[in-house]
Amino acid sequence: MHELSICHAISSAVTRHAAGRPVTRVCIDVGGLRQVVPETLAHCWELAIAGTPLAGAVLDITAVPAAIECRACGQLTVLEYPVFRCASCRGTDIVVTGGVELIITSLVLQEA
């Protein structure tokens, strides 16, 4: 369950950037190719922040689908399955353009 270590890393970064200010929400983007289960990540978040200054902060997860661009025909394809083949020309000379994200996009701080 690598989701727990991911949550510890996120909570560490959030704590550092919040600089003592109370955090109510942490927004992240998680790409479909990251092999992270969003439900497990949400559960692990609660475990990782229990008893810390982040306790009660909500983890808002946005799933980013895997996407590719074909170098041969320029077609952009959002992948339903990890089959790295152009949907238009069926070529395999592609560039991954989405789905590898694992990034904190924003923090929502408690109003004073």
The helix content, as a percent range, equals: 25-40%
CATH C-level name: Alpha Beta
What gyration radius follows from the Cα positions, in whole Å? 17 Å
Mean pLDDT metric: 94
The number of distinct structural domains comes to 1
Strand order of the largest sheet: 2-1-6
Structural description of this entry:
The protein is an alpha+beta fold. The chain has one domain (2-109): hypothetical protein PF0899 fold. The protein has two helices and six strands; from the N terminus they run αβαβββββ. The protein has helices spanning 2-18, 38-49, and strands at 23-31, 58-64, 67-70, 76-78, 94-98, 102-109. It has a three-stranded mixed β-sheet with strand order 2-1-6, with helices on one face. Strands 4-3-5 form a three-stranded antiparallel β-sheet, with no helix packed on it. A hairpin with a 5-residue loop joins strand 3 and strand 4 (76-78). Helix 1 crosses helix 2. It is elongated and about 55 Å long. The mean pLDDT is 94.
Describe, in short, the structure shown.
With 112 residues, this protein is of the alpha+beta class.
Strand-helix topology:
Layout: H1 2-18, E1 23-31, H2 38-49, E2 58-64, E3 67-70, E4 76-78, E5 94-98, E6 102-109
Parallel strand pairs: 1-2
Antiparallel strand pairs: 1-6, 3-4, 3-5
Keyphrases for this structure?
112 residues; alpha+beta; hypothetical protein PF0899 fold; 3-stranded mixed sheet; 2 helices; 26% helix
